[in-house]
Amino acid sequence: MTTTDFIQIIGTAAFAVSGYLVGYSKRLDVLGVVITALLTAVGGGMMRDALVGHVPQVFRHTDALIVVFATLAIAWLLRVQRYRRTHLAAAFLIADAIGLAAFSITGAQIGIGLQLNLFGVIVLAFVTAVGGGIARDILVNDVPIVLRADLYGSVAIFIGGLMYFLARIGWINAFTLHLLFAAGLFLRLAAYRFHWQLPGFQPRRK
């Protein structure tokens, strides 16, 4: 198993957990929870593949589906949904941060493999990392996290841009990929912990 495969599996499982928790918090039925988990875990990859004119990988390989359903089964057996609300919030944050960092890397790698420019690599990293979450949030009638959370989409842009420059100098290897993953995870969690925010706009009071 390559480093990329390992990161892909970790990201898929993490996003499946976050989708599961969102479905449970919205009191969806079993099918609804499965759909939110699947959308979160594979939706971004499907959008990315469509952008570059490829048949989505999930339609050709069953690895991601196996990971998603295995993760859902484990989450159900552990009765994750019965944990305390504070524990659920922490579990969602950590799972979502892991998926964000992992899928930013896998999306950027596909862009690098296709020899795209800096913008193309960043777009694929961004879409892969946040596309599934956007689809999930729209489905459950929430404002997507990427539009309101602290340095959420910015983490994907950071990882995508850094990977592009590392690839240009030939520094993409197992060590740098793990380092990027750790940096992206730390940045997302630190942004949440210390309330780091991008500048926002407030409506003018009349």
TrEMBL record:
Residues 6-78, 94-166 form the Glycine transporter domain. The chain crosses the membrane at residues 6-23, 30-47, 59-78, 90-112, 118-139, 151-171, 177-196. It is a multi-pass membrane protein. Keywords: Cell membrane, Membrane, Transmembrane, Transmembrane helix. It comes from the Bacteria. Its main location: membrane. It is found in: Cell membrane. The keyword Ligase does not apply. One of its GO terms (cellular component) is plasma membrane. Belongs to the UPF0126 family. This is Glycine transporter domain-containing protein. It comes from Eikenella corrodens CC92I.
